[in-house]
Amino acid sequence: INGGLISIDTIKDSAQAILVAWAPGFWGADAIADTIFGDNNPGGKLPSTMYPEDYVNQTDFLNMSMQAGPGRSYKYYTGVPLYPFGFGLSYTTFSISWSPAPPNSTTFTSVKANQTFTATVKNTGRVAGDEVVMAFYKPVADSFKTLPLSTPVAKKELFGFERVSLEAGASTEVSFTLDAETLAMVTVDGHREMHTGQFDIVLTRGHSSELTTQANVDVSAPQRLDTFRKWW
Fold it and tell me: How many helices (H) and strands (E) does the chain have?
């Protein structure tokens, strides 16, 4: 029970299971008891990255840059997290598979273009439960030849997620539509622009196997979508 992220390295090494309840409020004890005794099947996912305990020795907390030290958040952290953003287990098991398989590569040549990615989620365990599927895009940093070198490039970014409730043995489909303009990059000057480059598309449950494919942006010249105007 905690009001924010804490390092639990020693607990991870010794405990068979860890229930993170955050600050659960008045009915928290009931919810915790129901989960421990199996009356509730947990289906939560971490909303942030859980860092190892030595993170505090690697980071200058007076530096507000998201790239300071080993970086901050799932977007910029370059270390090995104790538990990653989106991690979370259940009393049942799930699998995901493409449905149908997307093309090996999707190319966006217009800011108005989009592509939908669909996967089948199946409850492969023996009890009913919830699962969350998340969709990320991962910019391939060295593929952006027209992007200013000083522009920070995130490791990955979430562009969709969906929670499903499934009985044991049941399955359903989840779909995520990626708009080309979502792949626009924010330059060091604050402008949001489309640049030719490559992205890995990942559908994941936060752990175990992932579904991956590729998307490319191919524009003749950088296209500015939003201009940042300094107010000072």
Answer: 3, 11
